[in-house]
């Protein structure tokens, strides 16, 4: 009985046993990746990743089954795979949150994309490839994160947002102030409010742990008519 089950699972032909095994494996592997994301406090967690992985697997099973049931000589499962990968991009975009220049969820969006590809691999019977890929995903999300923190322990990503009582702002001068404090500016978002005659500027920066923000903000205040300053962490 077990030999027949193993043979059915490993067979290239579509059967109830192999389909159930594929869906179960995609549920497990997708859920494992989802657990790691939920551990980081992301909105997309176990259920989301498990459903995405199972959905991709089911799409491949249906794509391979249609030519059989309708006696079609030509079938192209690759078309379904392409549609899954492009369609899951909308889910990934939904996982990316942007709040006035502060971006969160890029890693989760990438996880959604690769979990969809994981489901496709399971759908075509590449079980060991899917399992090994899951191990690599966890290694990337967990171990490389620790390594990244160790390497970049002296610097961390921050978002500094200022509100200024003027529409005439020279961001080059502001960047020079950051440079004086050894702060690297990666991106600048500038918004104008013509009704209130104020400007909102968001700087995505890399700062050292020893950065004296009180002195930084005081110098910024002495140069520009600041209304408020906000400091936020950048989290993926």
UniProtKB/TrEMBL annotation:
<keyword id="KW-1133">Transmembrane helix</keyword>
<dbReference type="InterPro" id="IPR003416">
    <property type="entry name" value="MgtC/SapB/SrpB/YhiD_fam"/>
</dbReference>
<keyword id="KW-1003">Cell membrane</keyword>
<feature type="transmembrane region" description="Helical">
    <location>
        <begin position="20"/>
        <end position="36"/>
    </location>
</feature>
<keyword id="KW-0472">Membrane</keyword>
<feature type="transmembrane region" description="Helical">
    <location>
        <begin position="80"/>
        <end position="97"/>
    </location>
</feature>
<feature type="transmembrane region" description="Helical">
    <location>
        <begin position="48"/>
        <end position="68"/>
    </location>
</feature>
<protein>
    <submittedName>
        <fullName>MgtC/SapB family protein</fullName>
    </submittedName>
</protein>
<dbReference type="GO" id="GO:0005886">
    <property type="term" value="C:plasma membrane"/>
</dbReference>
<feature type="domain" description="MgtC/SapB/SrpB/YhiD N-terminal">
    <location>
        <begin position="23"/>
        <end position="148"/>
    </location>
</feature>
<dbReference type="InterPro" id="IPR049177">
    <property type="entry name" value="MgtC_SapB_SrpB_YhiD_N"/>
</dbReference>
<keyword id="KW-0812">Transmembrane</keyword>
<comment type="similarity">
    <text>Belongs to the MgtC/SapB family.</text>
</comment>
<dbReference type="Pfam" id="PF02308">
    <property type="entry name" value="MgtC"/>
</dbReference>
<feature type="transmembrane region" description="Helical">
    <location>
        <begin position="109"/>
        <end position="142"/>
    </location>
</feature>
């Amino acid at each position: 009985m077990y030999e027949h089950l193993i043979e059915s699972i490993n067979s290239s032909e579509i059967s109830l046993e192999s389909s159930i095994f594929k869906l179960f494996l995609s549920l497990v592997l997708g859920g494992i990746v989802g657990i790691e994301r939920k551990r980081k406090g992301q909105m997309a967690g176990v259920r989301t990743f498990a459903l995405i992985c199972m959905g991709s697997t089911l799409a491949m099973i249906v794509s391979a089954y249609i030519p059989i049931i309708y006696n079609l000589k030509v079938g192209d499962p690759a078309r379904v795979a392409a549609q899954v990968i492009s369609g899951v991009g909308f889910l990934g975009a939904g996982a990316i949150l942007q709040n006035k220049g502060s971006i969160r969820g890029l890693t989760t969006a990438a996880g959604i994309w690769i979990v969809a590809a994981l489901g496709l691999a399971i759908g075509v019977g590449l079980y060991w490839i899917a399992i090994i890929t899951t191990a690599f995903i966890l290694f990337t999300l967990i171990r490389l994160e620790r390594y990244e923190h160790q390497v970049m322990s002296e610097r961390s990503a921050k978002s500094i947002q200022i509100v200024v009582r003027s529409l005439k702002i020279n961001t080059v001068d502001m960047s020079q102030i950051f440079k004086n404090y050894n702060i690297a500016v990666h991106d600048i978002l500038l918004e104008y409010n013509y009704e209130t005659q104020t400007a909102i500027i968001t700087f995505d920066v890399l700062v050292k742990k020893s950065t004296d923000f009180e002195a930084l903000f005081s110098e910024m205040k002495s140069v520009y008519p600041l209304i408020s300053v906000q400091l936020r962490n950048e989290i993926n």
